[in-house]
UniProtKB/TrEMBL annotation:
Record has Transferase as a keyword: yes
Pfam entry (one): Aminotran_3
Molecular-function GO term, any one: transaminase activity
Annotated source species: Mucilaginibacter corticis
Alphabetized InterPro entries for the sequence: Aminotrans_3, Class-III_PLP-dep_AT, PyrdxlP-dep_Trfase, PyrdxlP-dep_Trfase_major, PyrdxlP-dep_Trfase_small
Cofactor or coenzyme needed: pyridoxal 5'-phosphate
Family the entry assigns: Belongs to the class-III pyridoxal-phosphate-dependent aminotransferase family.
Keywords attached to this entry: Aminotransferase, Pyridoxal phosphate, Transferase
Protein name, UniProt field: Aspartate aminotransferase family protein
CDD domains (UniProt xref): OAT_like
Listed SUPFAM superfamilies: PLP-dependent transferases (SSF53383)
Length: 376
């Protein structure tokens, strides 16, 4: 059988990783500023992470959700503590799409309404409702099309107010910083407006934190910058540092009834061990502060480049908008300087490194970036 190539594949075979570096089969070292699309949160093969997963695997890899699983409770307690949402309830799943799917469904169970507000530029996943609220017609199959999703222009407060007028909105789903959409930061006033409209109309505020959450911006949820609490936070990516796990964190105002939520693999012992190890490292090594400091330094330095159109983002979620003449910058960073970065259309370089990136790594990137821009 031939493998279906999901994405255009670079002809590089990565076989090893350590911290912020990965290595190919020829032994070449690369600086990883992409983290497999914001997945590597505490660095590759972190010793504490490896040990915790190894110990768990020796003890018990999996048993069904029909029994008590103490490590799930431990994870809920730790996540509540690190995220500052101790009174929320945790439901564990396997991916970002599954988290959003469950959040949208739970909102509708809660208020009995059907309409969902989403935004231009949004990406929320590829399952049925998740893809319907995503702004990419090319990936929405006819079976996923629905009149219940209202797509509003990003940041448009007037359109938002108008959409609420008929009082039929079940939920609003929004990334605090759009990732796939090119690192677009939601203005604080916009998030506050969503909060107050949701309160007035008994709608559910869903904060998609799959890419912008888990400490990446220097706060646990990027929506925290606006000083608002969401009703449901969805997360995945950095949560397991590469082990598939996602979750929804549910505010006390929503109390799911038995049977509304369920999964076979979600919250399995190994996934919980991975997620706990990540939180322990985030806490012990003060990684929120590191993301804020090293990310802030990178953003400030990048703003000094006269060739750059715009630098967007917070902490270690950074978008560098470049004019079309620098279309080769990402490739040059990879093939000439051995640095992995991400991209977004039309010509945005995305940095989503591990949260323990050092200032020395940041300087290495800045030097390579200077070289790339000067040699186009
Ligand atoms: N939400 C956001 C903001 C994302 O960036 C992504 C993945 N790029 C998803 C949801 C979907 O996550 P997954 O691929 O784990 O289903």
């Amino acid at each position: 059988m031939k493998l279906f190539d999901v994405y255009p594949i670079n002809n590089i075979n990565i076989v090893k990783g350590q911290g912020s570096h990965v290595y190919d089969d020829k032994g070449q070292e690369y600086l990883d500023l992409y983290g497999g699309h914001a997945v590597i949160s505490i660095g590759h093969t972190h010793p504490h992470y490896v040990k915790r997963l190894e110990d768990q695997l020796h003890q018990l890899g999996f048993y069904s959700n029909s029994i008590e699983i103490p490590i799930q409770k431990q994870l809920a307690e730790k996540l509540g503590h690190v995220s500052g949402k101790e009174d929320y309830q945790l439901f564990l799943v396997n991916s970002g799409a599954e988290a959003n799917e469950n959040a949208l469904k739970l909102a509708s169970f809660y208020n009995g309404k059907k309409k969902i507000i989403a935004f231009t530029g949004a990406f929320h996943g590829r399952t049925s409702l998740a893809v319907a609220v995503t702004d990419n017609p090319k990936i929405i199959a006819p079976v996923n099309e629905t009149d219940d999703v209202i797509k509003l222009p990003w940041k448009d407060e007037a359109a938002l107010e108008q959409a609420f007028a008929d009082n039929e909105i079940s939920s609003v789903i929004i990334e605090g910083i759009q990732g796939v959409g090119g690192i677009q930061v939601a203005p604080e006033s916009f998030l506050q407006k969503i909060r107050s409209l949701c309160d007035t109309h008994n709608a559910v505020f869903i904060a998609d934190s799959v890419q912008c959450g888990y400490g990446r911006t220097g706060k646990f949820y990027s929506h925290d910058f606006a000083g608002v609490d969401a009703d449901i936070y969805t997360m995945a990516k950095g949560m397991g540092n590469g082990f598939p796990i996602g979750a929804i964190s549910i505010s006390p105002k929503i109390q799911p009834a038995y049977g509304m939520l369920g999964t076979t693999f979600g919250g399995n012992h190994l996934a919980c061990a991975a997620a706990l190890a990540v939180l322990e490292v985030i806490e012990q090594d003060n990684l929120l502060q590191n993301a804020a400091e090293v990310g802030g330094y990178l953003i400030d330095e990048l703003k000094k480049f006269k060739q750059v159109t715009e630098v967007r983002g917070r902490g270690l979620m950074i978008g560098i908008d470049l004019p079309a003449e620098y279309a080769n910058a990402k490739k040059d960073l990879l093939f000439k300087h051995h640095i992995f970065t991400g991209e977004a259309k039309p010509n945005v370089i995305r940095l989503l490194p591990a949260l323990n990136l050092t200032k020395a790594h940041a300087d290495q990137f800045l030097e390579a970036f200077t070289n790339v821009l000067n040699n186009q």
